[in-house]
Amino acid sequence: MNEHAPMYISVYHKIKTDILSGKYPTGGFLPPEGELMKQFGTSRTTIRRAISILKSDHLVHVQQGRGSEVLSLGDWPTSFATQELNHKYSDLHVISKFMVEGDYHTVTQNSIVDAMPAEIKVAKALGLETGTEVFRLQRVHLVNGSIYAYVVSYVPCTLTPGLENLSGKIDEGYLAFFEEKYGIRITSIEDTLTAVKAGFLESRLLNVPMGSPLLQRRRVSFENERRVEYSERINSPDLYELVLTLRQSPEAAPLKAASSEVE
């Protein structure tokens, strides 16, 4: 956390971390305002501003006379429909399209690395116990000087010892870096694309109003059967589009739809 950030931002981030780690369970309530004031050594106004942001992030529901109820983070899908591509189809081509006029230049800032206990969704994605120590890598992507994507990745601390000492030194090719330094070879990647609403952090980074629709990519990287990295990427709808092209030979059979179940 930036030591120069306003106090209400620090309070917001600390309470959000406690919610995501399960310290404040779904359906329960945050401590009363008076108790939070003592805990953080700050004013009622500061606490209320922090909770207002948590409310905008859909993490709490404020009920007059009852307090701030912790909302469900949402379960991951337990079933989904898949499309199996016939072997006569060629590769799927994924292209990044930037909505800028003329030439464009992209830059990726080096990752800022810190250690933290895995929150519920991160632990589930990596197959870990909630609260297990993971390294968090945060970075932004810019096109022509404007941020078009914010990416945060998580890797188990046990797989990448000493990674925190390389904060600010790891560039965009971090997966290749993991292989070179730690011998972790990514053999498969699972991407999930979905629409999400901009929370406080996303609205500030991408310069969009809170609640704006954004494209999110969730990625799990595997080394054979072992889950070694989980990442979330949020893209600005005003600057970035993802274009997927599937090429097909004339004799290719139609797509086959199948239902799959996930435990």
Structural class: alpha+beta
Report the radius of gyration as a whole number of Å: 21 Å
CATH superfamily of the largest domain: Chorismate lyase-like
CATH hierarchy class name of the largest domain? Alpha Beta
The 3D shape can be described as: globular
Question: Low-confidence segments, ≥5 residues, pLDDT <50?
Answer: 75-82, 255-263
What is the terminal-to-terminal distance?
A: 37 Å
The profile of the biggest β sheet is:
7 strands, antiparallel
What value does the average pLDDT take? 81
Total of domains: 2
> Order of SSEs, N→C?
HHHEEEEEEHEEHEHEEEE
* Strand residues, percent: 35-45%
CATH topology call of the largest domain: Chorismate lyase
Helix fraction by DSSP (H/I, runs of at least 4)? 10-25%
Instruction: Label the CATH architecture of the largest domain.
Output: 3-Layer(aba) Sandwich
- Counting DSSP H or I runs of 4 or more residues, the number of helices is 6
Q: How many β-strand stretches?
A: 13
